[in-house]
Amino acid sequence: MQTLLRLLGDGAFHSGEDLGQVLGVSRSAVWKKLQQLQVETGIEIHKVRGRGYRLAKPISLLNMKWLNDNQGVAGWDIRVYETIDSTNAEAMRLVAQGVSLPLLVLAEQQTAGRGRRGRKWVSPFAQNLYYSLALRVEGGMRQLEGLSLLVGLAVVKMLREMGVEDAGLKWPNDILVGRQKLAGVLLELTGDPADVCHVVVGIGINVNMQSSDQVDQSWTSMALEAGVGMDRNQVVARLSVALAEYLEAHSEKGFGAFRDEWERNHLWQNKPVTLLSGPNAIEGTVLGVDAVGGLRLRVGEDVRVFSGGELSLRLREQS
Q1: Does the annotation count 296 as an active-site position?
Q2: Which of 181, 232, 238, 259 is an active site residue?
Q3: pTM listed for this prediction
Q4: Given this chain, do its domains 2-55 and 268-315 carry the same CATH topology?
Q5: What fold does the segment set 64-263 form as a domain?
Q6: Helix, coil or strand: residue 242
């Protein structure tokens, strides 16, 4: 399947005869394989008499050899899957098996991708980035304070380098352009929270997605914002370089050293918001974050700090 996809990936027409010669099958067998490909991946394939077959849109497949050769300072083990339930779930399984870390898990498609608070993460084949980095952490959960916010900074740095200049942060784990979601971060922990534990840093980025009727919120993609399709291998490589640099600095300095940088990139800084916590709604104004990444809100005459995985922030319209 990968061979056929790579042959068609340029979006140009390819004759059934030429495809059959490369694959070593008949033209009728090529058509059957293409039908199977459409069913398994959801990729639309056009068939035109006298011209052959082409993808409705070019795709950028992940190339593990290229990624290994171009990850710069990161130097992580990399595994690339065609289809998987969730890169975070697979990373957690591999941690449980005792594989060497750090380990980066990537996939062309997820069948059960998820975001914060159990929400579904739409994961079409070879369009977006499904990225999970598994790390060993010494010294317990204190070493993870503010980590998800720092990961967001790495994502924003990569996005701006690749032409998405208006990308910014929304506390705690979203990356937006305006009010449209472009990427999200999901951290999952396993092990002893007081000693040696493991964290999986999950990052989902809308890269080349142009349309979707499955996303239940306003969204955008790198391609829509930059006006050109993106090479997903380049996205992975640049993200890994930025993330490796931020992770090293975080281990040495902690999140507090990046607090000002994070606030400068927070799109809702000094904005009126509603913070949802279960059935409770708290109205206030965003002042920023504290040294461990908690949200600082002015609520009436008081300044309060909030942190926790079940909190959700909403922008409040000013009258």
Answers
A1: no
A2: 181
A3: 0.89
A4: no
A5: BirA Bifunctional Protein; domain 2 (3.30.930)
A6: helix
Catalytic residue among 116, 170, 238, 259: 116
Fold of 268-315: SH3 type barrels. (2.30.30)
Query: Catalytic residue at 6?
Result: no
Segments making up each domain of the chain, as ranges? 2-55, 64-263, 268-315
Q: pLDDT digits over 81-139, tens only?
A: 999 999 999 999 999 999 999 999 999 999 987 765 556 667 788 899 999 999 999 87
CA distances from 237 to 5, 65, 155, 158, 272 (A): 22, 12, 12, 9, 37
- Does domain 2-55 correspond to CATH entry 1.10.540.10? no
The pLDDT tens digits of the residues spanning 262-292 come to 999 999 999 999 999 888 899 999 999 999 9
What is the number of residues in the chain?
Answer: 319
Residue 169 has what DSSP assignment?
A: E
Active site residue 181: yes
Order across the sheet with 129-137: list the strands: 77-84, 103-110, 129-137, 197-205, 180-191, 174-177, 167-170
